[in-house]
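Researcher: Please predict.
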Amino acid sequence: MKKKIVGILVFMLVFPTVAGAISSANTEIKSLNKASTEEGYSHNILGEFFTYTTCQPCKYAHAALKNLYKGGWHPFYYISMVYDKNKWAKQRHDELNVYASPTVVWDGGYRRDIGASDVQSAMTKYNTSIIKCGNRNVADIDLSLDVTWLGAVNPDPEDNETNVPIEQIMEWTVTAMDIDVTVDNNKASQYNGHLHVYVTEVNSTYWDDTWDYPYTFAFLDYAWNEDVTISGGGTWDDSTEWDGADHHNGGYGGMEYFDELYQDNCMVIASIFDEDNNDYTDETAGFLAGVNTGPKMFDLYFGNTTPPPKILSNTSIREYDPPDDLEWNTTYYWKIDIWNNQGDPTYGDIWNFTTRDNNPPNTPYNPNPMNNSIEVPINTNLSWYGGDPDFDDVTYDVYFGDYFPPPKVKWNQTGTTYDPTPYGNNLEFNTKYYWRIVAWDEYNYTASGPNWSFTTQVNLPPDEPSDPFPEDGANEVDVNVTLRWKGGDPNPGDTVTYDFYFGPNDPPTIKKHNLTDNFSETPYDLTEYETYYWKIVSWDSQGLSTPGKIWDFTTGINYPPNAPTIDGPINGSVGVEYCYNFTATDPNGHDVKYYIKWGDGATNWTELYASGETVQACHTWTKKGTYNITARAQDEYGKDGKYGYLIVDRPVTINLQNSQQSSKLLFLQILERLLFHPKLIK
C-alpha cells in the first residue's frame, strides 16, 4: 500500500558548487530498481526534460538533473526529450504543450520548471518540484518492470529463408530485449490509466548538449504507449520484444536506427498516468538492462548438417563471410551463442536457410535489325534482349561479319547494344551481314543465340541542295553574309561533302572543294550593289553527285532618295519657256537623276548629278491652264524616291463674277506680275 504524506517533509540539502558543468560526461546510475518507494514519498517521481541540441541554457538544466540524480536524495527518474532529433520526443512535447526550452515537466504536468540560468539555481528549483510531487496523494498503484536482454537476433538471412545467394554473408544483431510490465490496482474501484514505457540510452551515442556532453537517459522510442484499464484489485501485465534494429528517430535530423544500442547503456523507464486525475503520474519504475555485461563475444556454428559444427569461437564480429561460395540449392544451419563479460552464456536457436538454384542466362532474342531484314541503313547499331532468370549479372560475346560463320569481335560486354563500326566508318552498301550473341552469367553458365542476318541499303545519290540563304534573287544582302543551304543524303549514315561555286558571272566558277558543313563564308570581300551567282554540288561517300540550281543575290541596303524640292515661277503665259530648280538628297550619298512630269503630258529625265546638287530644267506650255509639276529622284542603282510637287498657272484667267475676296486675290496676283515679271505681260 502507498504511504500517504501526513506532514511537511523538510529537506536540508547542501549542493556541491558546480563550475560550469559536472566533471564527468558519464552518469552514475542510481539503483531505483526497487520494489518499494523510499520513506516519506508517495511514489517515484518522473521528470520529462524537453531540450534541443543547440539550446544554450538547456545545458544548465541537464547538468542540474544529472547532479540531483547522482546525489541520490530523491526517488525520481528523468528522461531527456531531445525533440529536434527525435520525432517521438516532439510528439510528447506537443502533447504537454511545452512552449519553451529548457522545460522539465514533473509527474505528467503537476509541476513545470521553465528555463535555467545556471546549474545551482536549476538544482534548487528542481529539488522543490520533486519534493512537492513526492508529497502528492496518488492512486494506490504498484508498477514493476523486468527486462531480459536477448541473445543474437535478426538473422540475415532470415530463419527458413529460401533462394539465398551463394555469396551470402551471415549477420546478426544483439539489440533486442524482452520487456515485462505489471501494474497492480490495489484499489477497490476500477483504475483508468495511460502507460508509457520509455526506452532510453543512459549516455546518448547520438546527441550531445552544448557543453558537448552526451544527453543522459535520452529517449529513443516507446515500448508501450497505450491506455490501461484495471478492475478493482486486479492486475494488468504484458510483455513485448523490443529490438533497436527495428526502431528509429522518425527521421528528425536524418533517419537514425538504434541498431547499435548495447545492453549496459540501456535504461527502460515505465510510468503510469492517471486519466481520472489530470493525467498526473501515479507511479514510475526503471530498469537498467545490464551492468558489466559487455563486451559480448560470439561462438558461431555453421554447416549443412544439424546441429551445425562450431567454426568460430570467442569472436567479437557480428557477421560471417564464408571463405568460398556456398553450394547451389543447399540447406545450411547456423546458430550464435553469446558470452558476456562475466562468462555467462546466452545460447542461440538453430536457424536455417536454403541457397538458390542457378539457371543459365536467357537465350538472346528480339534482334535489331530483325533477322533477314533488307534495306538496313549503313549506320545501324545492333541490339538485342537478354537478361537472366535469376537476375544474375550477364555479359555478352558478339560475333559479326560479312561472311558465315561470323567471327567474334567483342568479349564480355555488359550492354545489349553493339556498334559494328566503332571507328566512325559505316557498313558497306548492298552487303549481307551475319551475327549472333552468346550470353554468360557470373557463374559461367552460358546461352548461345541463333544466327541472324541482314542486308544493307543500295546506295542512292545525295539530295539536291535546296533552301538557299539568302533566298534566290534576294536584294539588299549584307556584304558579310554567310551562305547556307540544305543538303543531306537519302541513305542514313552516308556522308556528304559539297563543292561551292561563286562569282559575279553566270555561271559561277568553283571556289571550294569537299566542304563538310552546309554553310560557307564568301571566298572574297563582296562589293555593295553587286549581283553574285552561286551553286552547290553534293557528293556522297561512294562518288555519286547531285548539282544544285544556280542562285543569285544582290548586295547592299539601298535607301531611296528623298522627295525633291521644286523651285520656280508659279504664274506665266503660254508659249514662254520657264526654268525650275530640282534638289534631292540620297541617304546613301549616291548620284541621282530626276524624272519630271510637266503636267501637260510632257516628261523628261535629267542626267545624273551628285546628291544634294540643284539641277535646272525648263519647259514651255502651249495652252492656258493650271499645271501640276511633279518630279522624283532615282539613284544611280535605280532606286526611286517619292514625288515632289509644284502647281503653276499659264496664265491666270480673271472672272469678274467672282466674289470680292476672289477679286482681291486676283488683283494681288496681277500686281505681282507687274512688279516682278513685267516681261511676261503681253
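Model: Residues 660-676 form the longest helix (17 residues).
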